[in-house]
Design goal:
This protein is an alpha/beta fold. It has a single domain, classed as Alpha-Beta Barrel (TIM Barrel), CATH 3.20.20.70. The protein has ten helices and eight strands. It has an eight-stranded parallel beta barrel with strand order 1-2-3-4-5-6-7-8, surrounded by six helices. α9 links the parallel β7 and β8. α2 runs parallel beside α3 and α7 packs antiparallel against α8. It is globular. The mean pLDDT is 96. The protein binds pyridoxine-5'-phosphate (PXP). Pyridoxine-5'-phosphate binds next to β8 and α10.
Length: 240
Amino acid sequence: MRLGVNIDHVATVREARKTHEPSPVFAALLAQKAGADQITLHLREDRRHIQDRDLELIKELVILPVNLEMAPVEEMKDIALRVKPDRITLVPERREEITTEGGLDVLSMKDYLIGFINDIKDAGIEVSMFVEADREQISASKEVEADAVEIHTGRYANLWNEHNFQEVRKELERIREASLYAKSLGLRVYAGHGLTYQNVKDFLELGDCIEELNIGHSIIANAVIMGLEQAVSTMKELIK
Ligand code: PXP
């Protein structure tokens, strides 16, 4: 499985102070150096973390494929056509949500999405749909001519956090079935949301049907904790 590293929450820390550090661009380059297979970032309509300039610089400086998560709205389409990431992933977006809740309802937006996706595919950009492990949403993704689906793993992650391991097994099976179905339709299959250093292990058994995982929050959270000791001792040295 490939690893897409989502660097949004580096920008979340920066935006907490509206300053210049930490830089998601620098984080993307470090993730590349550490072996990431892709850089993923979500340009939200409210710009709460990643800013347009971050996207432009990352596209310019990072050699890895860049996967832009975005809402299916005209403003974002124009940005995608200008910056040309390697892939866009269409996600639902609500301003009041803390993070992306649930997958995109492709079924109810089919007519709108057909035109939207066409323009982006014409520019040579791969199009992926962030959907629940649901056959109808996957079929609709095929009908609107998406290239890929990313299966939402939030329910799996929540069950794991509750230590409800019986339901975790069932959810893994549901994801496996959905992924195999998507694959049988000729879609590429990715997954992500809420994956951590603990719950990713069970997920690896789906390696035969899922090509790539996109992981953000847990990697950035661990980077803060693992890097804190060094950061404090460097400041202490300076003050001494
Ligand atoms: N995939 C998609 C489509 C997402 O929207 C997100 C969150 O931005 C992720 C993966 C990564 O989720 P997390 O930050 O929980 O690892």
